[in-house]
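pipeline/complex-builder :: batch 7 item 3
reading input block
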Amino acid sequence: MASNISTDLIRGHTDTIILNVLQQGDSYGYQIYKTIIALSGNQYELKEATLYTAFRRLEKEGYIASYWGDETQGGRRKYYRITETGVERYRKNKQDWHFAKNVLNQLIEGGIQNEENKPGS
Amino acid sequence: MASNISTDLIRGHTDTIILNVLQQGDSYGYQIYKTIIALSGNQYELKEATLYTAFRRLEKEGYIASYWGDETQGGRRKYYRITETGVERYRKNKQDWHFAKNVLNQLIEGGIQNEENKPGS
DNA sequence: ACATATTACTTTGTCTGTCAATGTAATTTA
DNA sequence: TAAATTACATTGACAGACAAAGTAATATGT
């Protein structure tokens, strides 16, 4: 893990990242933790404490829902599922990110940029 | 000012943005404030309080230096100049941003991205 | 068999950057 | 001459990220 990435550069994207993972199927905390590391190509680790904080936040806001897995041995894995409003939220966040990315390019690079502006979505 | 951009999406880029402005010539607080709004195409306003906080931070760390303009009427404009380490810092920050941007794309968009990976500089 | 590592979830407290609110004072415009 | 703009500054609050520490189960190594 090179981890060049300062926490402030990711700040604000945590929720979007989690929602993206959950959009591809239900998952539980530790697995999501591993998935994010893998997705980043081992470049970024979203810390566990941050993750679990985000789960609370997202659930409270109704973007995800949780249920315990039926592991039959102890109260093991807590699974998360993305809700409909969660999917909407993800789409919105993704748009915002594309928008912000373009503005940031303008602000960080010197003058006027060519145009690498295709929100895709 | 549509200001779609949440503060958390910019967080961590403030210093880089300021250094970028100062790289194109000395300037003073209020002008930098206006320049950033213009540079963003009126899409983003870096708040004054944030700016002045950043000036302190950057000066303390030796990335910028300040001097009073010779307005001869009152202690008017405080100009800022980017230092050599400031220029280096800017370059580093820009690289970090390109790197983080690519990782973020991976984390926010679903699967594996094509490749829009040319750090430029 | 026993220690260690890994899986899995949780809480508490701290730090940092951003910004609202507020203030001062000079200059410019209506 | 009142109001707006320019220009700089401080204070206090808030939110997100995370280090640290902990609990408890299962798996692995020796």
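note: The helical segments of chain A are 7-10, 14-23, 29-39, 48-60, 84-108.
queue -> next item
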